[in-house]
Amino acid sequence: MAQLDPKKMEDWQIAAAAEESMLRVYDLAEKFGILEDELLPYGHYLGKIDYRKLLDRTKSQSDGKYIDVTAITPTPLGEGKTTTALGLVEGLGSLGKKVSGAIRQPSGGPTFNIKGSAAGGGLAQAIPLTDFSLGLTGDNDAITNAHNLAMVALTSRAQHEFNYGDKTLEKKNLRRLNIDPYNPAIGWAIDFSAQALREIIIGLGGKMDGFMMKSGFQITVSSELMTILAVAKDLADMRDRISRMTVGFNKKGDAITAADLEVDGAMTALMVKAINPTLMQTIEGQPMLVHAGPFANIAIGQSSIIADRVGLRLSDYHVTESGFGADIGFEKFWNLKCRYSGLVPNAAVIVATVRALKMHGGGPDVVPGKPLDAVYREKNVELVEMGMENLLAHIETVKKSGISPVVCVNHFYTDTDDEISLIRKTVQAAGARVAVSKHWEMGGAGARELAEVVMDACEDKHDFKFLYNEDTPQKERIELIAREVYGADGVEYSPEAEAKLAKIQQDPQLAKMGTCMVKTQLSLSHDPDLKGRPKGWTLPVRDVLLYPGAELIVPVAGGIKLMPGTASDPAFRRIDVDTDTGAVTGLF
Fold first, then answer.
1. What domains are defined for the chain?
2. Which residues does the annotation mark as catalytic?
3. Using one digit for the tens of pLDDT, what is the confidence trace for 102-120?
4. pTM of the model
């Protein structure tokens, strides 16, 4: 690995070099303790794991230690959360521990836009990079197709109900659902950032071209189906959840489900392979499970329960990943994923960088495509100190769960000893552990301090507790999250949100569903421009979405959209193919 120099090579070049010596999937599976009949190979280097066979075979085995990786409030500079998760896996591996990780499959939206493919970076990457970035084993495509099939069922049924009388419908073995075409529950899905598709009109043309109605697209990872994949315990659970998805409403305002449309079985058929997690590896040969998707700001944003159960069963240490900062990613891991799975974490890692802390401390704006201001490359202890308030807020959030937090300073070669020293002292004074990790530059060898500190934290006695219980009213939950996690003074509700919450609370089954907040990832508040640790603000809840299949109530704070936009200088401008070898270049 000595010939790989992150300072001189792009991530895709490092990945391509590492792929020359990566383990074949059967060898990787054997190393991980997966039997041949539990592996579903996809070519030479990828495979899916038959989770049912594996979990049934290993049911008498005890689980390993469970570690979640989250971060401070993200900035355009990037904090390297996935890179750190991979680095921690490599670091534990370098200490001779049997370790696995679970990360989320990237969305085509960020991959072809600004953020990149989320495969890690430097010497802490998941490989093969091209497969990981461009579709992998088809889970996102399955979700896209199943979601859109539900919309096909709704829109075609609405057209037939409009065009045919009851007798004709009966001859076709259909019952009238009285679909309200002007009140669909969902739109269409596509796995790109396509702002032009946010609001559209469909059904233009004649009688046979569909019912004309307002519609729109959301990015695939925001589909309820992605959340169902993340939280489903098994195929039967996934099938049941899909049947309960609300696709539209009748003219009385009652929900029309996938089961009402008789499309739930076909949707599950499209998803049946996706329920098995994909097996990949780090560039140092540790197993990585890839399952479910990103975007904790508009979705649950967690790697799957199934992937974690598989990893925990086969490893001494299993590292899982939650989206964005601890205010949304860890909060959903804590109060939703752990509640659904029954799994209790042993430690949580909060990723921070010196330069991100500088931005939270009042550093100049970072504009993609423009040179980085010198303040982010030069020593400035004062800005770091001012930005520590953001990190301290996330430490407090993790501690409220009863879990031991470990702050990982994701090291950049421009960081100075004085800046690092300040972070160490402040974190330790807050009652948390801290480690500096150089996994980007050195791989597992550079992450040994982090691995040792995390192992130590896993031995702590802890009193894990949820922020709220199932009987806590939805409004009270929202206000608990707003005050205790975001630091808000209170919550304001739009009349629409107020009415929806009142209706939900009247239904005992709906009232007990999980609370999955939707808000910007760029601030502890709802306002992406408020950095650091905002004070004296109120959280506005403007709408409440209902995902009965995923069993989630989804309050929407601020002006968040379920379809991101593509920037003026997207990553796809630099992605190409070597026509002699077929190798993809330019991914990051």
1. 11-135+274-458 (3.40.50.300), 139-268 (3.30.1510.10), 474-557 (3.10.410.10)
2. 81, 83, 104, 115, 296, 324, 412, 440
3. 999 999 988 999 877 788 9
4. 0.95
